[in-house]
Design brief:
Blueprint: H1 3-11, E1 39-40, E2 47-48, E3 55-58, E4 75-78, H2 80-94, H3 98-108, H4 126-133, H5 136-145, H6 160-166, H7 170-178, H8 190-204, H9 208-222
The site of one zinc ion (ZN) has 8 residues, from loops.
Domain FYVE-type: 19-87
Pfam family, one: FYVE
GO molecular function: zinc ion binding
Length: 223
Amino acid sequence: RSSAEALALAELPPVWVPDSSAAECVICDAVFAYLKRRHHCRNCGAAICDACSPARWPLWALPTSYTADTRFRDRVRVCLSCDDDAKNFQEAVLAGDANQAEAIYNRSGNVNLRTPFPYHEDRACPVHLASQSGSIELLQWLIVTKHCPTISRTVRGDTALSFAAACMHVDAMSWLVRVGASTVRDISDRELLLGALHAALDAHQLDPDLERRILAVNHAAEA
Ligand SMILES: [Zn+2]
Ligand SMILES: [Zn+2]
């Protein structure tokens, strides 16, 4: 499947279950009535009651097409099922558990791969936390299979590559650069870049003089 197709599918807003076919809450089976109002989950479109949709996600945690008609609110109602899936998915990605992450994604059908996690204060996306975990299997699934973009930055300006560098995941860094998902320019923090370079040299037991020569070339280029 092409990346354009994957993007179009990911951006397709949920279909709101019509009121006529939703007599009861899909989660607790309570029958909707005057005092049991019907609501819709902004993430999956299911008809749910108030008790089964206590979570409110910030707009940035959903694809923009899902919230096109909610310009005047900064948070939207989400059902318990979507909320649990998002939390469990974040946990699996952070743990670098590719099997678990894929299983949650496939079972749910409503996990967003291209938007930040609703409860991550720096607004990290799955590619960021996959890099933080260092799991190449997970990066492969997100970037190659699911066409997730790697140019996105968190609110702190961090990229997939800088997350991997901060955690000294040398193999993940190599993979990101080798498949063309990242470039060294993705790390704007020079100390972080040098730290990662040290880690790479240690990991691959390269000639320690190489780093000095690289730095000398760098300084010459800047002079
Ligand atoms: Zn309910
Ligand atoms: Zn939902």
